[in-house]
Structure formats: structure tokens, C-alpha cells
Design goal:
The protein is α/β, with parallel strands linked by helices. The chain has 2 domains: 2-178 and 240-313, ABC transporter type 1, transmembrane domain (ABC transporter transmembrane region fold), CATH 1.20.1560.10; 330-559, P-loop containing nucleotide triphosphate hydrolases (Rossmann fold, 3-Layer(aba) Sandwich). Helix content is 61%, strand content 10%. The strands form 2 sheets. Strands 6-7-8-3-9-10 form a 6-stranded mixed beta sheet, with helices on both faces. A 4-stranded antiparallel beta sheet has the order 2-1-4-5, with helices on one face. Strand 7, helix 20 and strand 8 form a beta-alpha-beta unit. The protein is elongated. The chain starts with a helix and ends in a 14-residue tail after the last helix. 33% of the residues are buried.
Length: 573
């Protein structure tokens, strides 16, 4: 048993609920034992009270059965409450781990839907708190009811065994008959929903360029496919329900008919006939619930396996190790970055050393791998070979929680979050007003923020929808410089800036350089190169030139292999 529970993190977590499940089993035993009391009451009423005409006996029997039924109902309520509490506790135990693992899986491109893991957790929790798991606690009592039925008459016991086998076969048949159809329906619904959501995100260009009609036609094809799969799955489900209902009612009637035949032949009393019918229904009820909950069981099994896989693939990081504050020395050793297919290379065998405190500008034509290199420098590109070393330690070995405040990153596509200006600059840590204002001043947006309706407390909307492109970029720059990061990577930081914003950017980079920070500046606008110490030229995923800025520019001019125009005006630092 210990080996079984110890085989994965998820099963170890479930093992902590053994006490709750033990109590549920005990309450199920009590409830199922007391379920026999109505049958015994029925036997006594039909075979003793009606014959003796004793009202006092009927009164005492009725009082006893009411007490038993009350205890049975209380036991069922307790076990349901225990299961609900266990489900909530399971969610509390796993939600943080699953959040971290799901985020990392999405970051590493191994999971397309970041909410899939939470859907699986919900499915698992709902199964543990629903009728399905109760049916499995009640199912072991089916043989007890069948045994009692045997005690009434062997023929009725044999019928009970036959009908129980039919119920189990129905569960297996329903799964085999509907599994593929339900999976096809789920996939079709996912494709249609994903396509619609992606188009709604880009509603403005769709409307502006009159693309709605053509996109709607494509969506209708997906929607019709979805409806076809739903119809097929529904038809199968309704057909199964009709067959199951026919068999269930037929079994009840056959049981009553067989018992009536035995009464006619004098082998059974009238009370036993009614009791046998009740016992048969009770014996088959857990199996009937299993049939109805079979799809939930399959979903819970698939959810369990999926969660088990993601937790195993992305184990919890050890946060006990303490790392020093990085100095900012960066080394590339045979760095290769792959595309999503994990075969085609974007970056090809890069080798370079970048000393702490230097500003390196990275230039090159579109598609040369500059932005991919930026992601590799901060350790977020999923598929790589070789190494990016930060102070001689591979960057993926650093604890991201400890390393995060020491890294500033401004991506090409600015991602801001729903919250206030101050919260976004402070990276949603506890807001330090002095540090927030300091970062805003370095980015040259302090005065701009003060003109907002609520200043630093102004909500920016989802994704910074309330801001212009230039404002988002400068706010992202302030976030990158918040605190005291040692390594700063800026990907096209001046793409949306006006002259004033660009002067503020140059001043910010000069300030970072004066404080010994390591800065990587990716740009297409060459008038900002004057602030750089070194220049790295990318071409076709390789380092074409790397060295001191003026030396590289002179070499480019001499060789006339211009990745930058020879007559470009470089702004002095």
C-alpha cells in the first residue's frame, strides 16, 4: 500500500485523505446496514402485524424504523459533508502546485491551454464529492443485499446475481459506445470556441478591413462540425438511456413477477415478495449509479493521469538554496534555440562573453534571431541546447523567485496587467512608493503619470488598454528598471517612442551603465547606438560581428556587408 501511495506526488497528496475516506466507509457501512431496516419493517408489518391486528406492535415497530431511518439519513449526510470537505481540502493542497506547474508547462509550450490543469482538478474534485464515489462505497454492499435475497429464496438470489451482471455489462457497454463520440464532441467544441475567441481579440482590425464575412464563414464550418458531433453524441446517449431504462424497469417487473409466482406456489409470503423487490432495487442501486457516473469516472481518471503527468514533469522547485545577488556577467556557450517543432534552429551555436556593467546593442535584419536571443538571455525560451551562464551558473538553475527582482525585461510585445500604474511598475509586489517613483522618473514618465486622473493609482485596464502604445512602452521600461536589477534586457524599447521618450530612454540606459548594470539593447533605430559599449550583429541566427561598437561599425563599413546603413547617424553617448 505504501508503494502505491508513494508512486507520485498526486497519490501522496491523496494518501493524506485516508482518514476521511475511512470515515466515509464507516458511515457508508452504517447507512447500508440500516437500509435493511425498511425491508425488515415491511416483513413484520405484512407477516405479523396484519395477521395479529396488534396496534401496539405496529406503533413500536414504526417508532423503531423512524429512529433507524433518521440515523441512516444522518450517516449519509455526514459522509457527503466529509467528501465535500475533502474535495475543498484537496483543492487547497494542490492549487498552488498546479498553478506553478501549469504556468511552467505553458511557458515551455507543452500545454496549449493554461487553464486545462485547473479543469482537471475541478473534474477530480467533483468526482470525489459526487454520487460516483458514493456509489463505489455502496457497491461492496451489493453482495450483502443479494445474500439477504438468497435467504428469502434461492431463485430470487440467482435473479439478483444475473441482474447485477447485466448492470455491470451496461456500464462497460455505455463507455465503449460513447467514449469516442464524446471525445470528438469535446474537440470540435474546443476548436470552434478557440477560433471565435481569437477573432474577438482582434475585433478592431476585423471590423476596419471588412474581414467579418469571410471569418464568419470559416467559423460556421467549425460550428457546423461541432453541431454534427453534438448530435451524434446526443443520439448515442439518448439511445443508451432508453435501453438502460428498458432493462431497469424490466428487471424490477421480472423480480416482482418471480416473487409473485413463488407466493402462488406457497414458497414465499406476501411480505417477503414486497421485501424481495425492495432488496433487489437496493442491491442494484449502486450499480445503477455507477452506470450513470461512468463518464464522470472516466473523466476523473483522465484528469488524474493528466495532473499526475504535469506534476511529475514540472516538480516543485527547491527554494531552500540561497543564491548571491548576481554581478551580471553573461556567457553564451554553444547556445542553440529551436522552433516549436524542436528540429529547426533559430539560434545556431552562439558563443560570446558579456562583462558586467557593459551595454551591448544587438542589431540585425528581421528574423535574424534577436528577440529569441533576448528570451534566452533571461531564461524563458523553452527549447534550447548549450548554455546561458549568469555568473558562471546556468540561468535555468537559478531560483526564479530570487532571481526575478535582479532581472529587468522589456519584451517586444508589451504585456501589462489589469491593475493600477503603481502595481504594474512594482511588478505586483507590495508597492514601495519611493522605488515606483524612482523607476518612473528614470523612464521619464513621472510627470505624465501625475497628469493621469488618479496619478499612480490610475487603473490601466486589461493589458494596458487605457494607454497609448508609447505610454505602455515607457511604463514597461519603468517596470524593467524597478528596484535594483543587475541584468536588463530591452527588446525594441524605442519602437513606439517619440523624440522626448527616446531621450529619456538614452538617459535611463546611461544611468544604468553608470551604476554598473549589464544592459542588452535590441533595436532597429540606429541613432541610439551611441549609448552602447559593444555591438553584436545577428544574421541568420548566428553572430556575424561582435566587439566594441566603433570597431564593429568600422568593420561593417570596410566590408560593405551592411546590416546597418553605412551612413547611419549614431547619436553619441
Amino acid at each position: 500500500m505504501n508503494q502505491f501511495w508513494g508512486r507520485s506526488e498526486l497519490t501522496q497528496t491523496l494518501a493524506t485523505f485516508k482518514r476521511e475516506f475511512l470515515w466515509v466507509g464507516l458511515f457508508s457501512m452504517l447507512a447500508n446496514l440500516l437500509m435493511l431496516s425498511p425491508t425488515l419493517y415491511m416483513l413484520q408489518v405484512y407477516d405479523r402485524v396484519l395477521l395479529s391486528q396488534s396496534e401496539l406492535t405496529l406503533l413500536f415497530l414504526t417508532l423503531i424504523i423512524i429512529v433507524f431511518i433518521a440515523v441512516m439519513a444522518f450517516a449519509e449526510w455526514l459522509r457527503s459533508r466529509l467528501l465535500v470537505r475533502a474535495g475543498m481540502k484537496l483543492d487547497q493542497e494542490l492549487n498552488t502546485r498546479i498553478f506553478n506547474a501549469s504556468f511552467e508547462a505553458y511557458l515551455r509550450r507543452s500545454q496549449q491551454n493554461p487553464t486545462e490543469a485547473f479543469t482537471n482538478l475541478t473534474n477530480l474534485r467533483q468526482f470525489l464529492t459526487g454520487n460516483g464515489v458514493i456509489a463505489f462505497f455502496d457497491a461492496p454492499w451489493t453482495p450483502i443485499y443479494i445474500l439477504v435475497t438468497f435467504m428469502l429464496h434461492p431463485l430470487l438470489g440467482c435473479l439478483s446475481i444475473l441482474f447485477a451482471g447485466i448492470q455491470l455489462w451496461l456500464a462497460f457497454w455505455a463507455h465503449r459506445n460513447s467514449h469516442d463520440a464524446m471525445n470528438a464532441q469535446t474537440q470540435a467544441e474546443g476548436k470552434s470556441r478557440a477560433y471565435l475567441q481569437s477573432k474577438l481579440k482582434n475585433a478592431e482590425p476585423v471590423e476596419a478591413m471588412g474581414m467579418l464575412k469571410n471569418l464568419r464563414a470559416r467559423w460556421l464550418n467549425l460550428h457546423q462540425e461541432q453541431q454534427q458531433k453534438i448530435e451524434e453524441a446526443s443520439n448515442r446517449q439518448h439511445r443508451q438511456q432508453a435501453i438502460v431504462k428498458f432493462i431497469r424497469y424490466s428487471m424490477q417487473s421480472l423480480t416482482l413477477g418471480a416473487a409473485a409466482l413463488l407466493v402462488i406456489q406457497g414458497e414465499l409470503t406476501g411480505g417477503a415478495m414486497i421485501a424481495a423487490n425492495v432488496l433487489m432495487s437496493r442491491a442494484l442501486q449502486p450499480l445503477d449509479l455507477i452506470v450513470g457516473s461512468w463518464r464522470g469516472l472516466i473523466q476523473a481518471k483522465e484528469a488524474f493521469e493528466s495532473l499526475e503527468s504535469i506534476l511529475k514533469t514540472y516538480p516543485e522547485q527547491d527554494r531552500s538554496a540561497q543564491y548571491p545577488v548576481p554581478k551580471g556577467n553573461v556567457t553564451l556557450k554553444k547556445l542553440i534555440a529551436f522552433k516549436a517543432d524542436k528540429e529547426s534552429q533559430i539560434l545556431k551555436d552562439l558563443n560570446a562573453d558579456f562583462k558586467a556593467g557593459q551595454v551591448t546593442a544587438i542589431i540585425g535584419p528581421s528574423g535574424s534571431g534577436k528577440s529569441t536571443l533576448a528570451r534566452c538571455l533571461v531564461g524563458i525560451w523553452p527549447d534550447t541546447a548549450g548554455s546561458v551562464l549568469l555568473d558562471k551558473t546556468p540561468i535555468e538553475h537559478w531560483d526564479r523567485v530570487q532571481l526575478g527582482p535582479n532581472i529587468g525585461y522589456l519584451p517586444q510585445d508589451i504585456e501589462l496587467f489589469d491593475g493600477t500604474v503603481a502595481e504594474n511598475i512594482a511588478r505586483f509586489y507590495e508597492v514601495d512608493s519611493e522605488l515606483v517613483i524612482e523607476a518612473a522618473k528614470k523612464a521619464g514618465i513621472h510627470e505624465m503619470i501625475l497628469r493621469f486622473p488618479k496619478g499612480y493609482d490610475t487603473p490601466i485596464g486589461d493589458g494596458g488598454s487605457q494607454l497609448s502604445g508609447g505610454q505602455r512602452q515607457r511604463l514597461g521600461l519603468a517596470r524593467a528598471m524597478y528596484g535594483n536589477p543587475q541584468l536588463i534586457v530591452l527588446d525594441e524599447p524605442n519602437a513606439n517612442l517619440d523624440d522626448l521618450g527616446e531621450r529619456a530612454l538614452v538617459a535611463a540606459i546611461q544611468d544604468l551603465k553608470s551604476r554598473g548594470k549589464t544592459v542588452f539593447l535590441i533595436t532597429h533605430r540606429l541613432n541610439i547606438l551611441g549609448v552602447a559599449d559593444h555591438l553584436l550583429v545577428m544574421r541568420d541566427g548566428k553572430i556575424d560581428h561582435y566587439g566594441l561598437r566603433d570597431d564593429v561599425l568600422d568593420e561593417l563599413k570596410k566590408k560593405a556587408q551592411t546590416t546597418v546603413p553605412i551612413n547611419s547617424k549614431v547619436q553619441p553617448a
